[in-house]
Automatic annotation (TrEMBL):
GO terms for cellular component: extracellular space; membrane. This is Sphingomyelinase phosphodiesterase. It comes from Stylophora pistillata. Its cofactor is Zn(2+). Zn(2+) 2 binds at D96, N137, H236, H277. Pfam families: ASMase_C, Metallophos. The lineage of its organism: Eukaryota, Metazoa, Cnidaria, Anthozoa, Hexacorallia.
Length: 461
């Protein structure tokens, strides 16, 4: 009996610590264009066709890089998620449902109708999975002008999402377009309405805290910390600058500062931060005052392949993303990016959705913690870094074949590592020695100089 007891005690002490791996999907920026292949202007292939672009001779069954998504591409992306991982712990859906067309072609009713169609599609494909959505800057009419108060769209969309969200979350959503949900004991999700901070939202610029979201977030994160909960933040527009468009900042400067301060204050509670909007595949690292990588933001690429008018950005292949996380610590462990090559898809009866890369395998890092992401970005700085070449290809979801020169690379690295606008400006400035590439180049010169001096000393001896 004593022996049995001893074995039980020993087993309970030394039982193997199993990593409880869970997974969840992020899908974003569907930008549904119902006019694909039936545009108002017969000289185009869709109403969202990239301005000033030449109309291609063939539109393509599954979509075109100059247009937002036809329904069949959206449907295919959601059913690809289902066939790859039909039982995720949950799904996050981070907004931008409407096409890039003038406001005159849209209406409040149409926004609600499109959100309903996409909500129904995700529900039908994943009847037993909870979807946690967020609104994007295109999910309002007129686009971007999200008012920090209740309105018809918050009310109608709140009702649509009541199939996934509890009553109190729906009520909060109807007030300001944001909410929180306890996903399970120990893991809380916060869906933010970051459209309020976007410089295109002209209704919020003069408000200190639009819809009281910052104050609400601070209380919520303080309580989460007290209750030993970890928090995943989801939303649409990211803080910081667009790594693919030098100097392009999304937030009003004061909101960028406030957002960064709010996140850094509670960095130990926030174990996942998932945004979108840029349509590109990237991430951001947040550092504490001592320069320690403390928090990160994952930026998920879009389903729409639409070529933006920003000159250095271009188009992307449609992507869907699966995260792997540890169900006990709530730490994100890996990112598995799936995509379909649109050119190839258009030669086939059905698109082929394949794994593009797994972050830990492609870059040989143990996980996707802020520390590991920081060590990865350090490798980008060396001349001809193969990791950077890979990252840059994935940045466009393997669509772009163009080169990234030194200015482009600096903008990429500064966009990832400097979310604070002032620090970003210093980082990208050609006249400063703190530019990451310049710093790397200087180190190489210093090393050569030291070696040369040593060889002179040795040869003299
Ligand atoms: Zn978008
Ligand atoms: Zn957006």
């Amino acid at each position: 009996m004593e022996k049995v007891l001893l074995i039980v005690v020993l087993f309970s002490l030394f039982k193997p610590v199993l990593l409880e791996k869970g997974s969840f999907w992020q899908v974003t920026d569907f930008h549904y264009d119902k006019t694909y292949q039936s545009p108002t202007d017969p000289g185009k292939i869709c109403n969202s066709q990239t301005p000033f672009s030449q109309t291609p001779s063939h539109a393509g069954k599954w979509g075109n890089y100059l247009c937002d998504s036809p329904w069949r591409l959206i449907n295919s992306s959601v059913y690809a998620m289902k066939s790859i991982e039909p039982n995720p712990d949950f799904i996050i859906w981070t907004g931008d449902d409407m096409p890039h067309v003038p406001n005159s072609q849209l209406s409040t009713e149409e926004v609600i109708e499109t959100v309903k169609n996409l909500t129904d599609l995700l529900s039908a494909a994943f009847p037993n999975t909870t979807v946690y959505p967020a609104l994007g800057n295109h999910d309002y009419h007129p686009k971007h002008l999200m008012p920090p108060k209740p309105n018809d769209i918050y009310r109608a969309v709140g009702n649509l999402w009541s199939r996934w969200l509890p009553h109190d979350a729906v009520n909060t959503f109807k007030e300001g377009g944001f909410y929180t949900v306890l996903i399970k004991p120990g893991l809380r999700l916060v869906s933010l309405n970051t459209v309020y901070y976007y410089t295109n939202d002209k209704l919020t610029e003069s408000i200190a805290d639009p819809a009281g979201q910052f104050e609400w977030l601070d209380v919520l994160l303080t309580n989460a910390s007290r209750n030993n909960e970890k928090v995943f933040i989801i939303g649409h527009v990211p803080p910081g600058a667009f790594e693919r468009a030098p100097g392009k900042k999304w937030f009003y400067p004061k909101f960028n500062k406030d957002y960064l301060a709010a996140i850094m204050k509670h960095a130990d509670v926030i174990t996942g931060h998932f945004l979108a909007h840029q349509h590109c595949d990237s991430f951001k690292i947040l550092y504490d005052c001592k320069g320690i990588p403390t928090s990160s933001i994952f930026l998920c690429p879009a389903v729409t392949p639409w070529k933006t008018v920003l000159p250095t950005v271009g188009y992307n292949n449609p992507g869907i993303r699966l995260y792997k996380y540890d169900r006990s610590t709530m730490n994100v462990k890996d990112v598995w990016q799936y995509f379909t090559n649109l050119t190839l898809a258009n030669t086939m009866s059905e698109p082929d959705w394949v794994l593009e890369y797994k972050v830990t395998e492609a870059f040989r890092i143990p996980d996707v913690s802020p520390k590991s992401l920081h060590s990865l970005v350090e490798t980008f700085k060396t001349q001809g870094s193969s990791n950077f070449v890979k990252y840059y290809l994935y940045n466009s979801v393997s669509a772009g074949g163009e080169q990234c020169d030194e200015e482009c690379k600096t903008a990429q690295i500064c966009g990832i590592t400097e979310v604070d606008f002032d620090k970003y400006d210093v980082c990208v400035s050609p006249s400063t020695s703190s530019s990451p590439l310049k710093a790397a180049t200087v180190s190489v010169y210093v090393a050569i100089l030291v070696l040369w001096s040593l060889s002179v000393i040795i040869s003299k001896n």
